[in-house]
Amino acid sequence: MMIKTGFPRCLVLVGAAAVLTACGSLAAAPEPHTGSRHGAPMPPASLAARLDDPPPAASQPPAGREPEQWPPASSGPGYEGGEGGEGDEGYEGYEGYEEGERGDGGAAYGRARDASPSGGTRASAPAAGPPGSAPAGASDAYRRWGLDRPLARPPAPPDVKPALGRSGPQQWGLPPIVRRVPTDQRVVFVTIDDGIEKDPRFVEQARELGLPFTGFLTDDVIGNHYDYFDQLRRLGNPMENHTLTHPSLAGMAYDDQVREICGQRDILWHRFGQQPKLFRPPFGEYDDTTLRAAAFCGVRTVVLWRAEMETHGLAYRSGDHLLPGDIVLAHFRGPEQLEGQSMTDMVTGLVRAIQAQGFTIGRLEDYV
Question: Residue 163 class from Cβ within 10 Å (0-12 exposed, 13-18 middle, 19+ buried)?
């Protein structure tokens, strides 16, 4: 009798212990992580907090995360502050570069993606110039480069970066889009795209003039020549993201856009030891999917432009002159694309045009 009554009692005690153990396990279970579609784990921390973190350590490569709210269906300009409109009417000749300049293109992405950051493939991260300041130039170098006067030092950057407004509703995790920085200072911002031309004299020119600019690099035309752009970066000029192969992103599938943006992000991180925070879509073309993919890849701001340096001078998206805070687009180009002009000739013409309108050049990352 004792055996018959003790056995059910034992079962009751064992069952209760099992329930308590299961409840404890559920209480201690960590927040589930959803894996990146490209192999990188996504952290549970908010994207906004992660974007302000310092560059990742060698054992912690960049990882993407889906935004928790997607934007309403709308065209790209609905998210812009300032002027609207898309496209890159002045961007000509991209398809005409020589095949030999492409380097290894997608293969470079594969190497950077698959390499372990602790395995020695990531470049060391020397200081890229003091934060909050533009590069300093030689006092009399302007004469050598055909300028009438030195490039004036930019005004002190704001203590707090200006808010980048949108004409559409704010959505968590989606980067703002900017063509013109909100400021009343007589300062504009030079950006130079892709990387087709690699003129060593431009490194001298940028150093001697103290020219601040932001590069937006495309792996497909750089190949194995990142050392050239590292020289420019070491002068204090950040190198940001312009995709792997320079496609028109609008209309592409989400995974393909992520591959283009995150792929170039990973290459820049491995080459320079710094994660890019700014992104420029090729041709200025994007859609809602681009903004989601950019957010996933850690982009803080999508940078377009309001003026562009062409062969015969500045062209404007609206009006006929520069405005305070304008973002100016130029390209790494050489004589084949510039009707015989060199990269340094083009930059001299750009600086002269900016000076003639009473502006100087600031460092974009000090404001966005």
Answer: exposed
